[in-house]
Structures are given as C-alpha cells and as structure tokens.
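During the first year of the project, the team set up a workflow for recording each protein of interest as an amino acid sequence followed immediately by a discrete structure-token representation. This format lets reviewers and collaborators read both layers of information side by side without switching files. As required by the reporting guidelines, we include two representative entries from the current panel. The first entry is reproduced here exactly as it appears in our internal archive.
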Amino acid sequence: MHAWPASEVPALPGKGRDLRIHDTATGGRITLDPGPVARIYVCGITPYDATHMGHAATYNAFDLVQRVWLDTKRQVHYVQNVTDVDDPLLERAVRDGQDWTELAERETALFREDMTALRMLPPKHYIGAVEAIPGIVPLVERLRDAGAAYELDGDVYFSVETDPHFGGVSNLDAKAMRLLSAERGGDPERPGKKNPLDPMLWMAAREGEPSWDGASLGPGRPGWHIECVAIALDHLGMGFDVQGGGSDLAFPHHEMGASHAQVLTGEYPFAQAYVHAGMVALDGEKMSKSRGNLVFVSKLRHDGVDPAAIRLALLSHHYRSDWEWTDQVLADAVERLGRWRSAVSRPDGLPAEALVEEVREALADDLDAPAALAAVDRWAERQNAEGGTDEGAPGLVSRTVDALLGVAL
C-alpha cells in the first residue's frame, strides 16, 4: 500500500531541541533521545468513512513529533497501518450495499488526499492489515505454541496473564479495563475465556465474511491488536521510540499490543513512550463515526476552506487536551492565517532569529503548539504594526512556520 506525497520541509539555521513528551505509561514527561534514526508507529484509520477532525488532530500531533525530530537533524522512520478489514468496515459495507474492499480503497484514497492537503508528512511504510496477514499468522502460531494463547470454538485468544507487564501502559484497574474492553471491541462476557480481558488473536472464518488461510490456525482473519504488532515488529523492531494514537487507544489497543510483542520477543518495553492525543468533540459529544457527529476535512476543503486554516485550527489546541470543534475555532484560524500571511508578505521585517528559538522551545516542551502560535502572533502583530529593516526576516518566519508547524504561508 502506498502513502501520500511528502511536502518539502525547509531547513532552518541552527538545530532543534530534543523532545520532552508526556508518556502515558509513566504518567509523566520524559525526554526522548533517539539515535540517528528516530522510530515512530502511529495507528491508522479503519477506512469506512472520511477523515474527520478527530483523526486530523491525532495525525497533526504526530506530524509535529516528526518535525521536531527532523529539526534535530535526525532521520525519521515512521510507520502507519490501515485497518482495512474489521467489523465496522464490514458492517458499513453491508449497510450501504457495497463491496468492502471497494469501500476501504475509496476511503483510504480520500484519507491520502486529506493528509496531502494538510501537509502531514507521510509514513515511510504505510501497511494495510490485509497485506500484513502472511506475517501475522506465524506470530499467532508462536504465541499459541508457547502457551500464551489458546483456542475457543476455533478462535484463538491471547492470555494476558502471560505478560508480567500487562497493565503497564494504561495503568487502569481490572474493573476499568473490563468496561473499556466491552466498549472498545472486546468480548469480556464471552464464556470459556481464561480471563475476561483476553483479546482475540485470530477469528475463525464466519459465514458471509472474508477470511484468509491461517495455516495451522485454520481459515479466518486476525484480531485488531496483533495486526499493529506484526507491522511494527517487522518495520521498526522492539523498543522503538514512540507508539502513538488517540487517547482511546491506550486501552485496549496499545496495552494489548505491548503485551503481545513483549511475550513474543521476551523483551521489554515494546515502545519507549506511549503518546496519546486528546479527543475532539462536536455539540458536546466526542466526534466519532458511531455517533455520526462528524466534521470532515474533505467537506471543509470542498467548501473552499484553506487547508492551512484547518491546520491552524488544530494547532490552536494542545495535542493532549480534549476540545470542541466550533465555527468560531475555524473563523479564528482563518483570521490568524490572514494576519500571518500579511506579515510575511512584506519585503523586510523585524528580526526573527529569536522567534525561531521560541517556536523550537515550545514544540520541544510536550508539543506546545498553542505557545508556538502565540510566539508567531506576537511577531506578526509587531510586524504588521511597525515593520522592520531585516530583509531576511519574513522568509525566515515563513520557513519556520512551514518546517515546524506544517503551515504554508
């Protein structure tokens, strides 16, 4: 599966700072110190609907991570998956009378268009769950043969009790885990499981649903969590720098994935940091496909909204915060974009070297994009009011905003 084209990232004078970021597993801020190649895995979409603002906010956060790393003169090895076979996708296809593969391909293509428009840097490897199945089957067999998985009516489940570190990502108690498991795709009430929290690794073929050759597992399809594990281990290996996604993925998805990988390899941890973006609401409810309360990136684009304004609207909220999309949020972003473009359109301006460092420091401090925006606001306000004589300043500001915030002025 191919990703989307990369926009050029301007090189800035000097060097960026190492990223200090909130780690869900420890509950505190840690300083990431990758090697020459920083490694990041971000969980991708289930492509049964277009990209909404909740998706965009999450991918914006991890785009900032990449940009901070690139500014430290590191390379970035970014991997993202597409869950292109799953119950919600199949259910939507049946509801709409569509072939599920055509639905997945169409929505994935639209996602690529949205990511391109928003100037999100693409992953080096963009992998669909379906194409990863040949690598998933041996991992499930290994877990089963090692006694870390068991069969139940043809399905194969992972035993969470085989990982001594289970629970260390989300830090939730058993009651909270059970509630979230039921809410987020698990089946804690199924009779016969060793532990209600045990997640499915391989689902035996169901009538009317797609299935693949599972070798000794029999025909079926993989569970959700093992898909990402197989892709991450194949392309990044254990101990990569950041596992990212929305806050609703901390449990069960990232918790279970970490346990799968740690039992498979005997190594710990799966990722050095677990980083989670907040949820975006509309009309007081979390924006989600199941509720249908969605604001689509593609709809805004088709209505003539500048993608740079959409990106500024996302950047105006800290990535870890839960916030609400409103018409005013977008209007403020449109107005800010106009002020910034006016400021950099002059042939000369106020010195901007200090601004570059302010933006760098803000983003290195747990991706504090609102603080970075405020720094540019101050420069633009003075520039529009007073002007200056530094011929290189407007260009430097424009390159800084592009390189570090992904906004083209």
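The second entry, processed by the same pipeline in the following quarter, appears below.
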Amino acid sequence: MKRRQALHALAGLGAGLLIGPVRSAQSLLPAAKTGRVVVVGGGWGGLSAAAHLRRALPAWDVVLVERQARFFSLPLSNAWLIDRVPGATLDHNYRQAAARHGYTFIQAEVRGIDRASRRIETDNGHLGYDWLVLSPGIAESLAPWVEGDPAALGAIRDRFDGAFVGPAGVRQLKQRLHAFAGGDWVMTVPPAPYRCPPTPYERAVAIASWWRERQIKGRLIVLDPGAGMAGYRDTFHRQFSDLIEFKPFVRIERVDPFKKVIHTDFDEIPFAEATLAGPQQAGALVAMAGLERRREQNEATGWADVDARTLQSQADERVFVIGDAVGLVSPLFGHYPKTGHMAVHHGRIAAAGIAARVQGKPFEPPFPDSTCWVYDSYTPPEMVRIDASYRIRGDGAMEQTIDQARENQPRGEEMAWAEGMFGEMFGTIK
C-alpha cells in the first residue's frame, strides 16, 4: 500500500516525470517509420480502438499492449456463472484479433508512463508513441474496510473477490458458487459510480436461480449503499423472498475476512461465503500518468479527466482515456454508463479523433450510446434492454436519456448483440 500511495503522490508532480521503474534500455519494437499509436488495455474499449485505428491509419504502427494472454468478457459472465452461456463465447485470443485486423499485440504490463517523452515502460521494455489511448478499466478501493491491513486485503481478494475487476475474480466466483453447499452468502453492491450498474442485481438473481434449481439451502444477503434498482427489488420480493434478503442504505465500516464478519453502521453480519465488491475508481494507470480529475482543494476523484465528447485528456492532448475509467462528463447525470457497449463506442470515437488530427481534418465527434441486456429471470428467461443516448441541450449541457424495454420471451437477442460486438472487436465480421 505504501508503494501505491507513493505512486499517486508522484503522479501529480508533472508530465515529464516517469512514474514507475527505472527506464529500460530494451525497446519492444523498432522505431516507427511513419508514426505510432499505442493502445494500453485489451478490454472492450481497447480492442475497439485498436481495430478502428488500424483501418483509419493504414500506414501507421498500431500497437495493443495488454497484460493478460487472453480476453474474457465480463458482459454475459453472470449467465456463464450458472452455465447458461458457454465459456467459448466469452473467451477470445488477442493474437488472432491482432492478425485479423493487422495491428501488433504485445503481452506486457505497463509500469510507467512518461508523457513528456511520449514513452511507456513495461515489465519487458519500453515503447515510444505519438498518440496514446488508455483503456485501463477499473480498480477497487478495499483498504478502508480492513484499515489498510495487507493480510486482510489479500484474504478478501483471494477468498471473497467481488468479481468486478477482471476475469480471475469471475472464474473464482464460479468455482465458489458451484462448490457452495448452503448457508449465508453476503454480496455487497459498490457505491455509484461503478461498472455496469445492473450487474450485482442480475448476479443475485443468477445465484438464487442456481440454488433453487439444485435445492441448495442458502440465503443471499445483498448489502446496498443506496435504494437499489426498483425492478430488481420487485424481482427479489416476487420470485426469491425465500432466498434473497435485500438490505438498502447500508454503510460498511469494517470487514474481517478471517472471522467472516461484516461490520456495518447498524449491526454485524456473519457469513459462510461472500462476494465483496468495494468502491471503484479508474485503473491505476490513470493516476500513474497524472490524468485524474480533481475536485476543489486538489482532491483526486479517482477517475480520468477527459473531454466529454472527444475523450481527449484534459492534461495532455496526445492522450485519450476511454471506457470505464472515464470520469464526470455532465453535471446533469455524472458519468457515462460503464458498460462494454459504451467502451466500444469510446474506442471508435478516440480512433476517429486521432486519425482526424493526424490527417489534419476537422473532427466533429459523434455521441456515444450504450445498450445493455440483463436478465431479471432465468427460469423462465426474462430480460430487460437498457439503452442510453445523448444530446447537447440549448444551454450547452450534455443530457442523457435512458430507455428500458422488457423482453418476456427473449429469442437470443443478447447473444446476437454480443456476437456483433465481438465480431467488431476480434475481426470476425467486417
């Protein structure tokens, strides 16, 4: 924790400072003949940006840097937890995507960003860039729950991961769910903003459905810092009153992962199992590069400060930040929805903006949009489609419109949507 705090402190000292390890003498690639765009992060947004950059700048080097060897989709993973979606649908090969689109894939972990020199440092060497797209996803802030105790923090991540940050947590959750024999299972809902707001509620329905089908005597205790989503509260009451206990307006003060007890502002809640998702913020690279949005008195928000339309960093015109890491974009609604669909649109916008600047062309960024398919019942299958769209009002503020539609007899619409998204990201459709 001390090293992380030091990195956050150093990030504010200036763009010319390298945040991370000593400079590496090894270059990951030869110098670019024309120019180079580096995309860091191989989630939905990063994959979209790399694919669209390759098409928009055919003479340039386009490089995707990602620390994982393979991609695994978090959207649709709740259905995967209970064997409603095959793993092959969510698991994809980065190198095949790079080969299909024609960009370069490098598996490495970024350890430092020198914006003055336009250079990133990884665990395998350094790489220069002319333009940089950061798609670092999210990180969780769990330390306050354990008063900074590294052993307790490690125990939460190793045994009770919230399954929001990456594929390892989702895979761990599936193993724990399939091995669960009964008892009290506590699930925490993060405070807003967080990745894909329907996720914890859809996951609660998935877990309860799994228990009911297998006649497992469990109780899922959902601790929510707010009021929850009205539609899901109704589902919990109508369909799962014997399996789900929903507790709104709960503030978690402390977690003891060794004694398996959660201390709230009202009581103590023991548990046999838990899915502990804490407050979220942008992935560490945003703070590492000094790109955080700050409040008055220079207090960091934890999220990236970007132009709401272009997604260009307010601190560096050569850097774009996309996807879930993006911070406040409007005083009317706050953040864009942190969804895979939104991240793909961010990738398109950043790619088009960089290409326009390289080519010296004017650029009017399109508005992003978001579509999210979520289950509110698995037996029988019932889904809700949530759409978000945007416009600029007469007073210059960005306005968000949310539309919801029920699909009580779905015919695979969510899979058709996912196949379209994956096809764009991995080059399996034109």
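For the second entry, the following points were noted during internal review. Residues 146-278 form a domain with the FAD/NAD(P)-binding domain fold (CATH 3.50.50.60). The longest strand covers residues 381-392. Both points are flagged for discussion at the upcoming steering committee meeting.
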